[in-house]
Write a structure and sequence with these properties.
Layout lengths: L4 E5 L10 H11 L5 H15 L5 H15 L5 H15 L5 H12 L3 E9 H10 L4 E10 L2 E8 L5 H12 L2 E9 L5 H6 L2 E5 L3 H10 L2 E6 L2 E7 L5 E8 L1
Parallel strand pairs: 1-2, 1-5, 2-3, 5-6, 6-7
Antiparallel strand pairs: 3-4, 7-8, 8-9
Helix pairs in contact: 1-4, 2-3, 4-6
């Protein structure tokens, strides 16, 4: 096979066990960048989601709103300090299956691309720790060491378009290509490749995977369960590997 094979991985919930974006927001709160009222609201929504008395979207809305309105008040250096703290404390929190898959594909000559809804400032250094060749993350504009509040690149909802542009510009091949994702937002990139893998899929991605016959992998504790579709349309356990 050609040397321009690629594998594209979502990061949050796929390689990283949680969400880099929200780790940064929670660390900004801990570091005193939000008001006490906003910090309390953020923690209340986060704890309510963890206890399953509210859904994740309720926390997500508050977190995104706080970051959006706070960014124009932040120096890039301050933000980078928070990012460095998060990476230092949490970059080891990864899934064994996807970490191992990335390492194996790298060894086999694949070009590894991370495509993340998290900020470029944290998605890029995180992905490099695990051997990725490049990273496409969310980009906020900054000038003269300050964030402007404007977005230069929005990855959420645009992953398929961004992937196609990247593949075309870098001469990569869809032949033998692989994509790994965990949520509804990854369906488009899984549809684009030769070998899609739905990893710990959300209900929306699970439905899409079943409809298309994609491989499904579930990692629980120290075992990765690989499910594959039979000719009769049912999924069966194909492998159960210790990870």
């Amino acid at each position: 096979m050609s040397s321009n094979r690629f594998a594209v991985f979502d990061i949050d919930g796929t390689v990283f066990r949680w969400q880099l974006y929200y780790e940064v927001v929670l660390r900004l709160a801990e570091s005193g960048f939000f008001s006490k009222k906003d910090t309390q609201l953020l923690h209340d929504r986060f704890n309510a989601w963890q206890s399953r008395t509210r859904n994740f979207h309720d926390f997500e809305v508050v977190a995104i709103d706080l970051l959006t309105k706070t960014l124009p008040k932040l120096e890039v250096g301050q933000f980078q300090t928070v990012v460095s703290q998060v990476l230092s404390d949490s970059s080891h929190k990864v899934y064994s299956y996807t970490r191992g898959l990335a390492k194996d594909l790298k060894h086999r000559g694949y070009f590894l691309l991370a495509l993340s809804g998290s900020m470029q400032e944290i998605a890029e250094p995180f992905s490099k720790l695990y051997g990725f060749d490049d990273c496409i993350g969310w980009v906020y504009e900054h000038k003269d060491g300050l964030f402007t509040g404007n977005t230069l690149r929005q990855t959420v909802g645009n992953k398929a378009k961004l992937l196609k542009t990247y593949v075309d510009e870098h001469g990569l091949s869809y032949e033998g290509s692989i994509a790994v994702g965990d949520s509804k937002g990854d369906i488009d990139i899984l549809e684009a490749v030769a070998q899609p893998i739905a990893f710990n899929p959300s209900i929306e991605l699970l439905d899409a995977a079943k409809a298309n016959g994609w491989m499904i992998v579930i990692e629980r504790k120290n075992i990765a369960y690989t499910l594959k579709k039979e000719n009769n349309g049912t999924y069966v356990l194909a492998e159960a590997d210790t990870v």
